[in-house]
C-alpha cells in the first residue's frame, strides 16, 4: 500500500519535472474554451426559448381572447365549448404552457359564473387530466407538482385520496404546503384539521401563504384555531394560528399566555402579546402590567404598552401615566405609553387633561407628535 | 538568488492556484444557488405577499443631495412599488439647490411636529414634512443639515423610519415594481434571522424610463458604463450568488439593500467616516450577531431589481473606485480582529479572510506580478513558451467566467429584449482585460496609497446626465 503511494508521488513529481505543467495548462485552456462555447450555446438557447414563447404568445392570445369573449362573455356558454375551432396543438408543450398562462390571466380577472365557465374551458382543454398525470408522475420535480396542484385547486378538480395523502406527507415542504393549499381551496373548513395537523417545518412565507388561502376562502365560522397553538412548535406555525385567531377574533387568553410564559424573549412571545392586544383580552390587563415589570427587553415592553392601549379598559391609566412621566425611560417607551393612554379614552380623559397642564417642553412635543393627525402612527 | 526567485514564483503560483479554485467553486455554487432560488420562486404565488394584510412593513430610506432635476420623478417611482405596507422616507441632506422646494410644491408637504428618537447618530434634523394629500400619506421628507456623507443621511432616515425593515437605496435609482416583494420573500423564507438582503444592480445609462419607471432595459451605449454593466453581472450573479450558497456574503450594495432595523440600530447604524459604508455596515452587523451568539443569514437574490446611473467618464469612474478601495482598506484595518478569528465563525474564517486575501490584496499582487515579470524578462529568466501559454489560459478563463455570468443572467430573466444587446455584451467580454481591468487596478492602488498617507477624501459630485431615455406618451423615445 505504502509502496504504491510512494510510486504515485514519484510519478506525479516526474510528470511536473518534465512537460507536466505545460500539459496541465493546455488542458485547462482547452477546457476553458470548451466551457466558453457551451456558455455561448446556452445564451443562444435561452434567447431562442424566450423568443419562441413571445412569438407563440402573440399568435395565440388574440384567437383565444376572441374565443373567450365570444363563447363565455357574449354567448354565455357554460360548457361543451367548441375547442376544435381554436385549432391549437395542445400536445405541443409550448402551446400548452401559453394557453394555460392566458386562461389563468382570465380566471384571475373574471369571477362569478363566468369564472366557473372559464374553469370548465380549462378542463375541457384537457389541462385537468394533464395536471392529474403530473402530480402522479412528477413527484420528484417540485416545481411541476406545485404548479399542477395550484392548477387543480384553481379548477376545483378532485384528486384521488391516496395521491393527496402521499403529497401531504412529501419530504419536500413546498409540496406539502401546495397540497395543504389545495385542500383548503377545494374542501374549505372540512380540511382544517387535516391541514393544521401536518404543518411542520414551514417558513414564515409559507405560513403567510396558508393564512391568505384560509381568509380568501368562504369560511366565516367559529373554528378553534387556538387548539393548534403549542410551545414546542416553530414561530412560523404559531404565528399562523395567532394571525388566524386575530382575523377571526377568537380569543384564547390561556393559550396565548402559555406561549408568553414558555419563552419570554422569543418572537413567539412578542407576537402573542401583540395578539392579546388585538383580541382585546381585557382579563389580561393586570397580568400584562406585571409582565412589563418582569421583562427586560425593550421590544417586549413596547408590545406590552401597545397591547394595553388596544385593550383600553382604563385599568392601566396610572401605570401608563407613570411611564410617560418617567424622563429616564427611552423615548419610544414614553411615546407608546402616552399613545396607549390616548387610546384609553374616555377613561383617561381627566388624566390627559392633568398631563397637559404639568408637562415640560419635551413632553409637550411628544404629545403634539402623538396627537398630530398627519403623523402616521404605526 | 535562484532560491529567492523560486520562492517568489511559488508564492505567486500558490496565490493564482487558490484564486482559480475559488472561482471554480463559485462557478458551481452560483449555478446551484440561482437554480434553487428560481425553483423556490416558481413554486410560489407571487400575489400572496403583494395582497397580504399581515406582511411586515418596510421603510424605504433614500437620501437626496442636489437632485433637483430628477427628484420628483424618482420619488413618484418609489411611491408606486407593489407592496401592502411601506413608507418612503426621503432625506434631503442639506441640498444647496431647490430639491426640497420642489418636493414641497409637488407633494403638498407641510412641516409636522415629529419627535425624533436619535437611535443612531446623525446631524441635526431641521424639519420633517408630510403630505396633505391622502394619496401621498406614505411619504415622509426629512430635511437635515448636510453630514458630508451618505451614511449620515441614511442614519437620519433610520431614526425616522417606522417599520421593522429598512430598504436603503439612492434616490436616483430606478427600482422594479416588485422589489419589496422579492426582497421580503427572501427574508420570510429563510431558516435563520435574515439581517440583510441584496439583489442584482445594473446600469440604467441607456435604458428607457417613463415617469421614473423602467419601460425597457437596454445595454449602455458608453463603453465604460457597458464594462461596468458586465462587471456588475459577474459580481452579483457569479460572486454574490456563489457566496450566497454558503451564507458567506461579504457585502450588500448601498444602491439596494434591505436590512433588519433592530440589528442595524444594535450595530450602531452607518459609519459616516467610512468610505465603504455599505460593506462596513454589513461587516459590523455580522460581527454583532456573532458577538451575541445569534444565528443569522445575509442573502442575495439573482433578479435585477435596481437600475442605477453609472459613471461614464474616466475621471468619475476612477474617483468612485478609489473611494471603494479606500473603504475596503479602512474595513480591513478597523475590523482586523475578525481575521481568522474562530469566534466570528464563518464570517471570521471565510468571509473576512477571502476579502483580505483575494479582494484587498489582489491589485497589489497584480502589480507585484507585473514587476516580477519585467525583472524576469530583463534577466532572461523567463520560459516564453510557458508564459504565453499561461497568459492565454488566464485570458480564456476570464472570458469564460464572464460569459458564464451572462448565461446565468439569461437563465434568470431575459432583461435585454434586443438580440444586438446580448451580442454586444458577449463581445465586450473580450476587451475587458485590456481596457477596463487596468483602470480598476490602477484606481485600487491609488486608493490604497491615498489611504496609507491619510489624504483627505473629496466626495465630489456625481453629475446626473439624465441618460435615462424618456418615452413620450405614445411610446416613442424623446
UniProtKB/TrEMBL annotation, chain A:
Keyword vocabulary terms for this entry: Membrane, Transmembrane, Transmembrane helix
Highest taxon of source: Bacteria
Residue ranges of the TM segments: 20-48
Name assigned to this protein: HEAT repeat domain-containing protein
Organism field: Sphingobacterium athyrii
Lineage per the UniProt record: Bacteria, Pseudomonadati, Bacteroidota, Sphingobacteriia, Sphingobacteriales
From TrEMBL, chain B:
Name assigned to this protein: Glycosyl transferase family 2
Residue stretches spanning the membrane: 12-34, 356-378, 384-408
GO MF terms, alphabetically ordered: glycosyltransferase activity
Keywords: Glycosyltransferase, Membrane, Transferase, Transmembrane, Transmembrane helix
Family per similarity comment: Belongs to the glycosyltransferase 2 family.
Family matches, as InterPro entries: Nucleotide-diphossugar_trans
CDD domains on file: CESA_like
Amino acid at each position: 500500500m505504502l509502496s504504491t503511494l510512494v510510486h504515485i508521488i514519484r510519478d506525479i513529481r516526474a510528470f511536473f519535472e518534465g512537460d507536466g505543467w505545460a500539459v496541465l495548462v493546455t488542458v485547462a485552456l482547452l477546457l476553458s474554451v470548451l466551457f466558453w462555447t457551451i456558455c455561448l450555446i446556452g445564451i443562444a438557447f435561452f434567447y431562442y426559448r424566450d423568443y419562441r414563447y413571445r412569438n407563440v404568445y402573440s399568435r395565440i392570445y388574440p384567437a383565444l381572447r376572441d374565443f373567450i369573449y365570444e363563447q363565455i362573455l357574449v354567448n354565455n356558454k357554460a360548457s361543451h365549448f367548441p375547442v376544435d375551432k381554436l385549432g391549437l396543438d395542445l400536445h405541443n408543450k409550448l402551446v400548452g404552457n401559453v394557453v394555460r398562462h392566458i386562461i389563468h390571466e382570465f380566471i384571475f380577472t373574471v369571477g362569478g359564473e363566468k369564472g366557473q365557465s372559464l374553469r370548465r374551458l380549462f378542463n375541457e382543454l384537457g389541462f385537468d387530466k394533464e395536471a392529474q398525470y403530473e402530480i402522479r408522475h412528477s413527484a420528484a420535480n417540485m416545481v411541476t407538482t406545485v404548479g399542477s396542484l395550484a392548477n387543480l385547486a384553481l379548477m376545483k378538480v378532485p384528486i384521488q385520496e391516496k395521491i393527496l395523502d402521499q403529497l401531504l406527507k412529501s419530504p419536500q415542504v413546498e409540496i406539502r404546503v401546495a397540497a395543504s393549499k389545495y385542500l383548503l381551496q377545494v374542501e374549505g373548513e372540512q380540511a382544517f384539521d387535516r391541514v393544521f395537523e401536518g404543518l411542520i417545518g414551514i417558513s414564515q412565507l409559507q405560513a403567510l401563504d396558508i393564512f391568505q388561502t384560509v381568509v380568501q376562502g368562504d369560511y366565516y365560522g367559529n373554528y378553534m384555531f387556538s387548539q393548534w397553538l403549542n410551545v414546542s412548535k416553530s414561530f412560523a406555525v404559531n404565528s399562523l394560528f395567532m394571525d388566524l385567531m386575530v382575523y377571526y377574533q377568537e380569543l384564547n387568553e390561556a393559550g396565548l399566555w402559555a406561549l408568553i410564559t414558555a419563552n419570554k424573549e422569543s418572537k413567539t412571545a412578542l407576537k402573542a402579546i401583540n395578539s392579546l392586544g388585538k383580541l382585546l383580552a381585557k382579563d389580561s390587563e393586570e397580568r400584562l402590567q406585571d409582565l412589563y415589570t418582569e421583562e427586560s427587553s425593550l421590544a417586549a415592553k413596547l408590545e406590552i404598552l401597545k397591547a394595553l392601549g388596544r385593550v383600553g379598559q382604563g385599568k392601566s391609566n396610572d401605570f401608563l401615566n407613570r411611564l410617560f412621566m418617567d424622563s429616564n425611560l427611552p423615548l419610544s417607551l414614553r411615546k407608546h405609553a402616552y399613545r396607549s393612554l390616548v387610546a384609553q379614552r374616555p377613561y383617561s380623559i381627566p388624566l390627559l387633561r392633568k398631563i397637559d397642564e404639568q408637562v415640560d417642553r419635551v413632553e409637550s412635543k411628544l404629545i403634539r407628535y402623538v396627537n398630530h393627525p398627519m403623523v402616521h402612527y404605526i | 538568488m535562484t532560491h529567492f526567485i523560486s520562492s517568489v514564483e511559488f508564492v505567486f503560483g500558490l496565490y493564482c492556484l487558490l484564486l482559480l479554485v475559488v472561482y471554480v467553486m463559485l462557478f458551481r455554487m452560483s449555478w446551484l444557488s440561482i437554480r434553487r432560488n428560481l425553483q423556490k420562486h416558481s413554486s410560489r404565488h407571487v400575489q400572496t405577499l403583494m395582497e397580504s394584510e399581515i406582511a411586515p412593513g418596510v421603510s424605504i430610506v433614500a437620501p437626496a443631495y442636489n437632485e433637483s432635476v430628477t427628484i420628483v420623478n424618482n420619488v413618484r417611482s418609489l411611491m408606486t412599488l407593489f407592496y401592502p405596507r411601506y413608507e418612503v422616507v426621503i432625506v434631503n441632506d442639506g441640498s444647496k439647490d431647490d430639491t426640497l422646494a420642489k418636493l414641497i410644491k409637488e407633494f403638498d408637504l407641510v412641516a409636522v411636529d415629529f419627535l425624533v428618537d436619535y437611535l443612531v447618530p446623525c446631524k441635526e434634523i431641521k424639519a420633517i414634512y408630510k403630505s396633505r394629500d391622502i394619496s401621498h400619506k406614505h411619504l415622509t421628507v426629512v430635511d437635515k443639515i448636510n453630514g458630508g456623507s451618505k451614511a449620515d443621511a441614511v442614519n437620519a432616515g433610520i431614526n425616522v423610519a417606522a417599520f421593522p425593515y429598512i430598504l436603503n437605496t439612492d434616490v436616483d435609482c430606478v427600482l422594479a415594481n416588485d422589489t419589496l416583494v422579492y426582497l421580503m420573500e427572501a427574508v420570510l423564507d429563510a431558516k435563520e434571522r435574515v439581517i440583510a438582503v441584496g439583489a442584482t444592480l445594473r446600469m440604467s445609462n441607456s435604458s428607457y424610463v417613463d415617469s421614473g419607471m423602467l419601460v425597457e432595459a437596454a445595454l449602455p451605449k458608453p463603453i465604460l458604463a457597458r464594462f461596468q454593466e458586465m462587471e456588475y453581472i459577474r459580481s452579483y450573479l457569479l460572486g454574490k450568488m456563489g457566496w450566497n450558497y454558503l451564507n458567506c456574503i461579504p457585502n450588500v450594495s448601498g444602491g439596494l439593500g434591505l436590512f433588519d432595523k433592530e440589528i442595524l440600530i444594535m450595530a450602531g447604524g452607518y459609519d459616516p467616516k467610512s468610505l465603504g459604508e455599505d460593506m462596513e455596515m454589513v461587516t459590523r452587523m455580522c460581527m454583532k450577531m456573532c458577538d451575541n451568539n445569534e444565528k443569522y443569514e445575509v442573502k442575495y437574490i439573482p433578479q435585477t431589481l435596481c437600475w442605477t446611473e453609472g459613471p461614464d467618464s474616466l475621471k468619475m469612474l476612477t474617483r468612485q473606485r478609489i473611494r471603494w478601495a479606500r473603504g475596503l482598506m479602512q474595513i480591513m484595518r478597523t475590523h482586523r480582529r475578525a481575521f481568522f478569528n474562530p469566534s466570528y465563525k464563518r464570517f471570521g474564517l471565510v468571509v473576512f479572510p477571502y476579502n483580505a486575501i483575494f479582494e484587498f490584496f489582489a491589485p497589489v499582487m497584480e502589480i507585484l506580478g507585473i514587476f516580477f515579470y519585467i525583472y524576469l524578462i530583463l534577466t532572461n529568466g523567463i520560459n516564453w513558451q510557458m508564459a504565453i501559454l499561461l497568459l492565454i489560459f488566464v485570458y480564456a478563463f476570464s472570458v469564460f467566467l464572464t460569459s458564464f455570468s451572462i448565461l446565468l443572467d439569461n437563465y434568470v430573466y431575459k432583461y435585454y429584449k434586443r438580440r444586438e444587446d446580448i451580442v454586444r455584451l458577449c463581445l465586450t467580454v473580450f476587451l475587458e482585460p485590456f481596457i477596463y481591468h487596468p483602470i480598476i487596478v490602477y484606481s485600487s492602488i491609488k486608493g490604497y496609497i491615498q489611504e496609507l498617507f491619510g489624504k483627505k477624501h473629496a466626495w465630489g459630485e456625481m453629475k446626473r446626465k439624465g441618460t435615462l431615455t424618456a418615452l413620450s406618451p405614445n411610446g416613442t423615445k424623446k
